[in-house]
Specification:
By secondary structure, the protein is mainly α. It has a domain at 13-31 and 73-138. It is 78% helix and 0% strand. The protein has helices at residues 15-29, 34-38, 40-67, 73-96, 103-137. Helix 1 runs antiparallel to helix 5. The model is unreliable at 132-138 (pLDDT under 50).
Length: 138
């Protein structure tokens, strides 16, 4: 298990979205630390931070998608909504106490999802925004 490392392959060609992705990676990586993963209150706080920043980022990204008439916007938004619900579910379990999931499980889920989502879905939007949007606008 390793922390998420930003790479140029994750760039979507939009500085604001790339910076948001770096911040999301930094938040998820807080769960990489053994001490953080053992403290339910700290996990809950990190999940609160992740949920808040994710909502901000998803709103920005979705606004850009709508503006550019991104053809798979609805499917992409559904992925965002599903992730948000899953992370909220994890947070709620920690908030209720006695969670059956571990901090490691939360880290692995979030890091796997975030890495795959950026590399697959968001870079696809970046390509569209850089090329397909010009055709829509033109």
């Amino acid at each position: 298990m390793e922390p998420i490392q930003w790479s140029r392959w994750m760039s979507v060609g939009n500085d604001a979205l790339d910076e948001d992705h770096r911040v999301l990676i930094a938040i998820v990586n807080k769960l990489y630390d053994d001490e953080s993963r053992q403290d339910p209150a700290l996990i809950e706080a990190i999940l609160d931070e992740l949920i808040a920043y994710t909502r901000h980022h998803f709103a920005e990204e979705e606004a850009q998608m709508e503006k550019l008439n991104y053809p798979t916007f609805a499917a992409h938004k559904a992925l965002h909504d599903r992730l948000t619900r899953q992370v909220e579910s994890y947070r709620d379990e920690f908030r209720a106490g006695g969670s059956r999931i571990s901090g490691e499980e939360v880290f692995l889920f979030c890091s796997d999802w975030l890495g795959k989502h950026i590399l697959k879905e968001d870079t696809r939007f970046g390509e569209y925004a850089g090329t397909g949007a010009e055709m829509v606008a033109g």
